[in-house]
Amino acid sequence: MKELLKKLITAPENANEFDIFMTYQLESISKFDPNIGTLKPEEVDLYIDMDRKPHFSVFENAFKVEIRKELKEYWSQFWCPSFTVVNKKAITKSHTDENIFVNLLRSPKCLEEMIEDIEMYTEEMNEMGVEGLFFPIAFKEDGWNILFNNKDGKVYIQEHDPVKCSKIAESIKDFYS
After folding, report:
1. DSSP 66
2. Among positive and negative, which fits the CA dihedral 163, 167, 172, 177?
3. Count of Cβ atoms closer than 10 Å to residue 69 Cβ
4. 3-class DSSP state for residue 159?
5. What is the pLDDT of residue 1?
6. Rg of the chain (C-alpha set)
7. Residue 134 contacts residue 172 (beta carbons within 8 Å)
8. Which phi and psi angles does 54 have, rounded to 5°?
9. Taking CA 100 as the corner, what is the angle to CA 88 and CA 80, rounded to the nearest 5 degrees?
10. Which of 135, 146, 142, 154 is nearest to 96 (CA)?
11. Has this prediction a pTM greater than 0.70?
12. What is the pLDDT of residues 15-53, one digit of tens each?
């Protein structure tokens, strides 16, 4: 998963700079990287707790499920803010924009902050007839959400106007490949 995300971030069509770091600093924002000391103080403030592994037990305890390995890998490679990528799998019949904002974690604390959002997405998707537990992994500029279903391991897009959802990939790796 790390190589896939690295390729995604450094692809020529994606920004060379996103938020406060450059792609050449990518290795420095890797989790558990011994070069953490090479970041500027303001960058360390943003990427707090980089030396700690995220504890997915926060989700597992809150939702009484085991979090899929693929989602853990997705969120355990880099600490970074959202960044934009081009992804043709995010195109739908009603919206042809292929730009998405990728969500990764800034710190392990982000897990706790996401619980309410996960509850909301799960409720909305379940009401639309798709059973599962839904985690946001990306979003589109118009507010559409790219959600990972922990139950079946598939990726869905949640649209509005009209409100509906569609399966767009068989896995996170498939979505970004």
Report:
1. P
2. negative
3. 11
4. strand
5. 72
6. 16
7. no
8. -65, 140
9. 130
10. 142
11. yes
12. 544 444 455 455 555 554 444 445 444 444 444 445 556
3-state secondary structure of 39: coil
Q: What is the CATH number of domain 2-176?
A: 3.40.1580
Stretch (H or E) spanning 130: none
Lookup: tokens for 80: 């970074």
Sequence-ordered list of residues with C-beta below 8 angstroms from that of 12, at least 6 positions apart, any chain? none
Element (H, E) at 143: none
Paired strand residues for 157: 146, 166
Which amino acid, 50?
M
d(CA 167, CA 72): 20
d(CA 102, CA 96): 18
For the chain, where are the alpha helices, taking DSSP H only?
2-10, 41-46, 57-63, 69-74, 109-127, 172-176
